[in-house]
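Budget justification aside, the reviewers requested a transparent look at the raw inputs and outputs of the sequence design task funded under Objective 1. We therefore reproduce one unedited record. The lines immediately below are the structure tokens for a 122-residue chain.
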């Protein structure tokens, strides 16, 4: 592994961010700066915390801390999508797909965090 870009969790989170951002713009105008903004920021945070953690990989505990932040932002993103799903039924199927992808990503982040916790050599 030469860079954070080699991490599957980075690749998946970046791809999901690129799907989630334009999806958030489908919300009504009055939600673009409320729930839409929260969704965009949490989705971005999933990815950004992976990058920042990797940048601190020399310090194992810092790496783990940022991976935990990434997993928490992933859960936050799913929660925002569930709210959108409940409030805007016309976006239901697209939300369901994103929620499933974020759930899979959350499992991968968790597994990678456990790998770092038990096997990472600083």
């Amino acid at each position: 592994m030469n860079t954070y870009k080699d991490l599957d969790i980075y690749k998946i989170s970046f791809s999901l961010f690129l799907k989630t951002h334009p999806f958030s713009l489908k919300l009504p105008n009055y939600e673009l700066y409320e729930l839409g903004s929260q969704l965009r920021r949490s989705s971005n945070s999933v990815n950004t915390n992976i990058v920042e953690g990797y940048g601190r990989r020399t310090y194992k505990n810092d790496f783990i801390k940022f991976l935990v932040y990434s997993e928490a932002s992933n859960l936050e993103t799913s929660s925002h999508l569930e709210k959108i799903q409940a409030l805007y039924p016309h976006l239901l199927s697209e939300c369901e797909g994103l929620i499933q992808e974020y759930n899979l990503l959350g499992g991968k982040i968790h597994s990678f965090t456990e790998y770092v916790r038990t096997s990472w050599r600083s």
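The radius of gyration is 15 Å. The chain is about 80% helix and 0% strand. Computational costs for records of this kind are itemized in the attached budget.
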